[in-house]
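$ run holo --ligand "uracil" --emit tokens
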Amino acid sequence: MKSEYQELLEATLDHLEELKREGNRYVALDPARLADLSGQKLVAPTAKAARVPVAAISRPSIAISATVAPTPVTAPTLVYTSAELSADAKKEAMGRLRLKAESCVLCPHLAASRTKVVFGVGDCLSPLLFVGEAPGAEEDKAGEPFVGQAGELLTKIILAMGFTRGSVYIANVLKCRPDTPGQQSGNRKPTTTEMDTCLPYLQEQIDIIRPRALVALGGTALEGLFGKTAAGITKLRGTWKEYRGIPVMPTYHPSYLLRNQLISVKREVWEDMLKVLERLGSPISEKQRGYFKGGG
Ligand code: URA
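-- output --
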């Protein structure tokens, strides 16, 4: 016999399927109700009714069985602590987390506007993790972080360090592109609420990878990890911090380097990367030590 809850759930799903068949793409949902449905605490108490894509509410994401209660859509729960996971367990955990992020609707406005969730890319066994702020338009289309101009520069930095894009892990604080309603182009900085809402995904990525060093790219990534601090990236870059037991090297965002072509600024970033290589115990050649030396 079905429980009252199951009957209600199935009736709700039937209704949503019906709406989808009729061509409806969104349902208006009060954020408090959405938070109740997804088992989350309310993250944006003042937000107006949200438009949730009907496609995001699909049957397969909710398991109904006679004996097992349905699993609500929730932010990740942290199950990986200090214990190191095996390579297979890391890959499996990362795959499961990716699936969870790809169906996330915790920020309904971003779930409605995104093309793809930009979860992260690279080797989850890597000793090195790069963290940026949020996907831009190109990343949103590709579903991969750092594929635009800033990404090309980041790739060059990674290669100069002796790694490849595939041998490190790259992720952002925010997994969805911050929407820009009414704008044809351009990107915007994620809000504090958006970053706080999405952060558990990055935290779980960090806990799965347990890298030996994390590079925080730019002031916004730093803010996403540590909250607003009195000192900004100019002051903090080049100085080690710690996050979830992982050494963190804050440095300038590659977009800043693209806007500011001074060789002295490139050298500052490179010195930060040399510190990372030293921390990892990676061999550093004389040629590498000398990159961007000579002022400017
Ligand atoms: N900037 C970021 O911070 N992340 C990206 O993925 C692309 C640009």
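-- notes --
The longest strand covers residues 246-251.
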